[in-house]
C-alpha cells in the first residue's frame, strides 16, 4: 500500500485521518509538533508516541520531503533547488518529469525562502522567464509546504527555540501566480502560521501577485498577509503589453482593490514591484505617472533591475536612469527601495526561474 503523506494536511484533516485509525487528537497534535516544530521526518523518532503508535503510523503515512534533482549555490550565497514532483507523469522515465524551483536567500538573522505555487505559469509576463514555459498545473498543499521543510532540512534550521530560526520570511514570488491557486494558498498559510508548528509571523509572509483583482479582497480578509503587486507600468496600454493579465483585470480596478488592501487586511503598505526596462518604462515621465497612480495608496516601491535570461526581450536600465527614477519617486513622497538582485549567476533571481519538463540526468 502506498503511504499517504501527512505534510500539507490541515490540522483538522490530520485529526480525521488519525481518528480513522483510532488515534487520538493528542497524538495528532504530538505528530504535528514533531513534523513542523522539530522537523522530524521519521515516525520512529517521534519519541513521545508509543512504539506501537509509531509503527502503526509508519505503515500508512509518511513525512517524506520532495526529491531534490539538484541544488545550486550562487557566489552571493543564494541557493536554488530543483525539486521533482511526486506525481510525475511517468515516474519510470528518469528524464521527463514535472519540477519546480525554490530559492533560499540567506541573511544573518532573517533569511527568506521564495516559494513556487504552480508548475509553470499561464500569465506570460514578457519580462519573466517562468512565463515562457507555460502552465502545467497548480501545486498541491504537500508540494508547497514540503518546499519549506526541504529547505529547512538543507540549511539545518530546526533549533530547539523557534525564536532562533534562521528562516524568518516567506515570499510567494517563485514560479506561478499564487492567487490562481488560492484555496491551496489559504490552507498552507494557516499551516505556516500555526503557533504549534512552523510559527511564521503573518507579517513575514508576503504574497506577490500580477494583479488578480477579484481575489484581493479574499486574500485581505481571510489571510491578512502583506501584499506585493507586480506592477511594472502605469498606463493600461503599456501594462497590457508587458503583462497580458492586464487585459482581464485592468489597472483602474486593480489599483482600487490595492488601495483598500492595507485597511482590509490590517497590514502595512503594499509593496509595488517595478522592474526598470530600458527605454520601455524608465523615463522621468514614467516615474511621474507612477507617482500619480500611487497617490493616496498606502504603498512603497521596490525598484528592481531586470535580471537577464537568454531570450529576454528587454535590457536593464542604466544606473543613472535608475537613480533619476528613484529620486523622482522619493521627492514625490513615495518610499522607494532598490532591491538588490540575489542569485543572478544561477538564474535564481526574480523573473529567472524556469523548470523545463525534460531533463538530462546523465
Ligand atoms: S511574473 Fe509571475 S505571474 Fe508573471 S509570468 Fe512570471 S511567474 Fe507568472
Distance between the termini: 31 Å
Main sheet specs: 10 strands, mixed
Level of helix content? Answer: 25-40%
Structural class: alpha/beta
CATH topology of the largest domain: TIM Barrel
Query: Can you list the ligands bound to this structure?
Result: iron/sulfur cluster
Number of helices: 11
Mean pLDDT: 92
Net shape? elongated
Count of domain modules: 2
Instruction: Report strand %.
Output: 15-25%
SSE blueprint:
Blueprint: E1 4-5, H1 11-20, H2 25-36, H3 51-60, E2 61-62, E3 68-73, E4 79-84, E5 99-105, E6 111-114, E7 118-120, E8 135-138, H4 141-154, E9 167-172, H5 182-193, E10 205-209, H6 213-223, E11 227-230, H7 236-242, H8 245-248, H9 251-265, E12 270-276, H10 284-294, E13 299-305, H11 319-331, E14 335-338
Parallel strand pairs: 1-2, 6-9, 9-10, 10-11, 11-12, 12-13, 13-14
Antiparallel strand pairs: 3-4, 4-5, 5-6, 7-8
Helix pairs in contact: 1-2, 5-6, 6-9, 10-11
Bound molecules: iron/sulfur cluster.
Amino acid at each position: 500500500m502506498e503511504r499517504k503523506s501527512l505534510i500539507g494536511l490541515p490540522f483538522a484533516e490530520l485529526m480525521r485521518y488519525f481518528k480513522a485509525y483510532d488515534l487520538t487528537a493528542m497524538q495528532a497534535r504530538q505528530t504535528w509538533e514533531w513534523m513542523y516544530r522539530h522537523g522530524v521526518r521519521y515516525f520512529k523518532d517521534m519519541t513521545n508516541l508509543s512504539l506501537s503508535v509509531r509503527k502503526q503510523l509508519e505503515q500508512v503515512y509518511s513525512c517524506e520531503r520532495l526529491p531534490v534533482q539538484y541544488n545550486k549555490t550562487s557566489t552571493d550565497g543564494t541557493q536554488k533547488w530543483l525539486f521533482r514532483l511526486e506525481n510525475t507523469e511517468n515516474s519510470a522515465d528518469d528524464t521527463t518529469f514535472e519540477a519546480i524551483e525554490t530559492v533560499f536567500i540567506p541573511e544573518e538573522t532573517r533569511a527568506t525562502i521564495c516559494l513556487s505555487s504552480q508548475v509553470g505559469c499561464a500569465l506570460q509576463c514578457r519580462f519573466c522567464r517562468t512565463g515562457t514555459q507555460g502552465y502545467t498545473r497548480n501545486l498541491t498543499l504537500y508540494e508547497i509546504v514540503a518546499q519549506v521543510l526541504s529547505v529547512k532540512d538543507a540549511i539545518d534550521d530546526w533549533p530547539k527555540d523557534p525564536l532562533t530560526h534562521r528562516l524568518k520570511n516567506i515570499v510567494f514570488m517563485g514560479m506561478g501566480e499564487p492567487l490562481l491557486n488560492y484555496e491551496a494558498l489559504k490552507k498552507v498559510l494557516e499551516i505556516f502560521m500555526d503557533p504549534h508548528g512552523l510559527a511564521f509571523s503573518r507579517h513575514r509572509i508576503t504574497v506577490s501577485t500580477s494583479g488578480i483583482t477579484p481575489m484581493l479582497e479574499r486574500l485581505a480578509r481571510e489571510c491578512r498577509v502583506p501584499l506585493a503587486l507586480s506592477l511594472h507600468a502605469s498606463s493600461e496600454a503599456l501594462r497590457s503589453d508587458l503583462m497580458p493579465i492586464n487585459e482581464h483585470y485592468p489597472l483602474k480596478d486593480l489599483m482600487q482593490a490595492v488601495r483598500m488592501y492595507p485597511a482590509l487586511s490590517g497590514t502595512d503598505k503594499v509593496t509595488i514591484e517595478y522592474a526598470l526596462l530600458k527605454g520601455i518604462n524608465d523615463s522621468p515621465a514614467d516615474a511621474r505617472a507612477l507617482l500619480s497612480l500611487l497617490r493616496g495608496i498606502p504603498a512603497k516601491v521596490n525598484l528592481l533591475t531586470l535580471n537577464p535570461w537568454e531570450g529576454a526581450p528587454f535590457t536593464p536600465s542604466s544606473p543613472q536612469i535608475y537613480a533619476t527614477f528613484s529620486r523622482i519617486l522619493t521627492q514625490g513622497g513615495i518610499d522607494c527601495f532598490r532591491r538588490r538582485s540575489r542569485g543572478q549567476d544561477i538564474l535564481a533571481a526574480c523573473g529567472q526561474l524556469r523548470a523545463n519538463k525534460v531533463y538530462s540526468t546523465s
